[in-house]
Design brief:
Number of domains of chain B: 1
Low-confidence stretches of chain B: none
Oligomer: heterodimer
Number of strands of chain B: 3
Distance between the termini of chain A: 46 Å
Number of domains of chain A: 2
Mean pLDDT of chain A: 96
Structural class of chain B: alpha+beta
Largest sheet of chain A: 7 strands, mixed
CATH architecture of the largest domain in chain A: 3-Layer(aba) Sandwich
Helix content of chain B: 25-40%
Strand content of chain B: 15-25%
Shape of chain B: globular
Number of helices of chain B: 6
Strand content of chain A: 15-25%
Low-confidence stretches of chain A: none
Mean pLDDT of chain B: 93
Number of strands of chain A: 17
CATH superfamily of the largest domain in chain A: Type I PLP-dependent aspartate aminotransferase-like (Major domain)
Distance between the termini of chain B: 34 Å
Strand order of the largest sheet of chain B: 1-2-3
């Protein structure tokens, strides 16, 4: 795709692939879709929660249901063969996208949360016990924080949290102190969904491996927004969700190094994942199918591969450059006001999201006022309650950006924040 | 676009900025707290009944949170002075929305009805019909 000032990508052309961006906001929210009283243009800045879906991905979903909808693997008939080939090749496509060796290392799950749980149960229940430790960071999303916390309770392992510094970045010295020979797992979020901090995953992986531990990387915010290569990161496991990267909901990915996945017992048992079953015993399918019990997310997996094609056409380096540009602009615009607090590292050192509060206005009030002006942000604890406790706040508003966002939309956000300021003055 | 708002009308903002009946009673007949953890909204309602054991003689609230939850609590305390427990128990969310006088968006209803639920639960606990520690109105 061509470029256009001031963006590293052709935002105008990209926006044409997302018809939802043309809809208006402002009226009855009890009925889905645009209504007669909707009048404000949508300014969608909630991409860290879910991204929109470009036309090629919508078409891939429709093509599947209109053309070759069928269950995979069991059928000899042509529809089933077509669906099976497309679904299996989607694993190859995703493997290529993140630098994995092949489909054996790519498990399709429901979402990032399901991917964490798969590792926590299938690997953690066996590997963890009293005297072992799991090292997390204070900025983990509940998806990994709660999961490891509960698996630790079941196994008697200890959970340790590497500190977040006052500047909103990970205290690496503290992390290095916590990771020791008792450590079996280091689970770290790559890009914080609240602070925007980008964690040094490779250095953490080296620390983990020096002590014989595994590293699990929560890539929910990183894989959609920047080049991520599991070989460069030396990640043992990496999880992410399709719906934050132009794909549909209902599909997540778990990457795992092949030898680790081969050693692990299945997480879910049932159809599709077995090779031979008797009344007494069962044996398992090869990777990755050993971990995909039951009818898998067929349409979602195929559509995810199309989403990956779409993002590769834009270019992940370009996606990152665009995210950086918008994050820095938003950070500068918002921090220009004394009554706005932005959480996390500076604008030139963060992922494409900005969580903030306006003095004297609860984040939910702020979000409601923004919504009346068509500006969609998230307000709440962003599934990082302990981090919000540490920051001393109940909630924050968060604007998060993607390939179709513009600086004008950030201006609209800042104007809407100013409207809230005046209302509550 | 001006700074006007559909949901944050003057009355709501006024009750938020200048809450009525804000505080605690030294010797309430009953008292109850509610919290919506994901919002951080907290509300405590203290109620003093008249000698008839039925009429609300005085009701005050304290707490912290968003403008909708706090304004709703403030307006509710004004509305409830002199009503009976039976009238309190007969109230529903439509009464709260009518009282607020604005359209509350579906995601914010939980904020609007927290105060009402807190004082209703407090009354039920007082009458021995309910046993909860903290009231919540979010899923």
């Amino acid at each position: 795709m061509g470029t256009q000032e001031p963006y590293p990508i052709d935002v105008e052309a990209i926006r044409e692939d997302f018809p939802i961006l043309d809809r208006k906001i402002g009226g009855d929210a009890t009925t889905p879709g645009e209504g007669p009283t909707d009048d404000a243009p949508l300014v969608y800045l909630d991409n860290a929660a879910t991204s929109h879906t470009p036309e090629p991905v919508v078409e891939a979903i429709a093509d599947y249901y209109r053309g070759y909808n069928s269950n995979v693997h069991r059928g000899i008939h042509q529809l089933s063969q077509e669906a099976s080939v497309a679904y299996e090749e989607a694993h190859d496509r995703v493997a290529e996208f993140i630098g994995a060796d092949g489909r054996e290392e790519i498990l399709f799950t429901a979402n990032t949360t399901a991917s964490v749980n798969l590792v926590a149960y299938a690997w953690g229940l066996d590997a963890l016990g009293p005297g072992d430790s799991v090292v997390l960071t204070e900025m983990e999303h509940h998806a990994s924080l709660v999961t490891w916390q509960q698996i630790a309770k079941k196994t008697g392992a200890e959970v340790r949290y590497a500190r977040v510094d006052d500047d909103g970045t990970l205290d690496m010295d503290h992390a290095a102190d916590l990771i020791d020979d008792t450590t079996e797992m280091v689970s770290v979020v790559h890009v914080s969904n609240t602070l925007g901090a980008i964690n040094p995953v490779r250095r953490l992986a080296d620390l983990a491996h020096d002590h014989g531990a595994r590293i699990f990387v929560d890539g929910a915010q990183s894989v959609p927004t920047r080049p991520v290569d599991v070989t460069d990161l030396d990640a043992d496991f990496l999880a992410f969700s399709g719906h934050k990267m132009c794909g549909p909901t209902g599909i997540g990915v778990l990457y795992g190094k092949e030898h680790l996945l081969a050693e692990m017992d299945p997480f879910l048992y049932g159809g599709e994942m077995i090779r031979r079953v008797t009344y007494e015993e069962s044996t398992w399918e090869d990777l990755p199918w050993k971990f995909e019990a039951g009818t898998p997310p067929i349409e979602q997996g195929i559509a995810l591969a199309t989403a990956v094609d779409y993002l590769d056409d834009v270019g992940m380096e370009n996606v990152r450059a665009h995210e950086d540009l918008l994050a820095e602009y938003a950070y500068d615009q918002l921090t220009a006001f004394d009554d706005v607090t932005v959480y996390g590292p500076p604008g030139d050192d963060r992922g494409g999201l900005v969580a903030f509060n306006l003095d004297g206005v609860h984040a939910h009030d702020l979000s409601s006022i923004l919504n009346e002006r068509g500006v969609a942000v998230r307000a709440g604890d962003h599934c990082t309650q302990p981090l919000h406790d540490k920051l001393g706040i109940a909630a924050s508003a968060r604007a998060s950006f993607y390939i179709y966002n513009t600086v004008e939309e950030i201006d609209a956000l800042v104007d809407a924040v100013d409207a809230a300021r005046q209302l509550f003055a | 676009m001006g700074i006007g708002s559909d949901m944050y009308r003057q009355q709501i903002l006024d009750h938020y900025k200048n809450p009525r009946n804000y505080g605690e009673l030294d010797d309430p007949t009953f008292s109850h707290v509610g919290e919506n953890p994901s919002c951080g909204d907290t509300i405590k309602m203290d109620v003093a009944l008249a000698d008839d054991g039925e009429t609300i003689e005085r009701v005050v609230f304290s707490g912290d949170g968003c403008a909708i939850s706090q304004a709703s609590a403030s307006m509710l305390t004004s509305k409830l002075q002199g009503t009976t427990l039976a009238e309190l128990e007969a109230m529903d969310r439509d009464d709260v929305v009518d009282m607020l006088g604005v359209d509350i968006s579906p995601m914010r209803i939980k904020c609007a009805v927290l105060a009402e639920k807190v004082v209703q639960d407090g009354a039920k606990i007082y009458e021995g019909e309910l046993d909860v520690e903290t009231t919540k109105t979010e899923e």
